[in-house]
Design goal:
The chain has a domain of 42 residues. A two-stranded parallel ribbon has the order 1-2. The longest helix has 13 residues. Helix content is 28%, strand content 11%. It contains two helices and two strands. The protein is an alpha+beta fold.
Amino acid sequence: MFGGRRVAIRIFLPVTPGRESAGEAAVATPIPPVGKGEVVLVVDDEETVLRATEAVLRHHGYEVLLASDGVQAVAIFAVNSAASAWC
């Protein structure tokens, strides 16, 4: 928990065909959600993580705002909170 709030993280990994062990049932791969312009605020202090996450989210139809720390994230949210369709 962070500051009394829950954080949910979903990671979608593709299943590699032929990698199931003998006797193990194949698990269906969830289809990543497709955005309709909703806004996602990504916060990370690693530039590489920010850019990779941004590319994936934009590819799936989300609008992405980036922040490199919590202070910047709060400022970005304050400026954009009324005008954006947040996820």
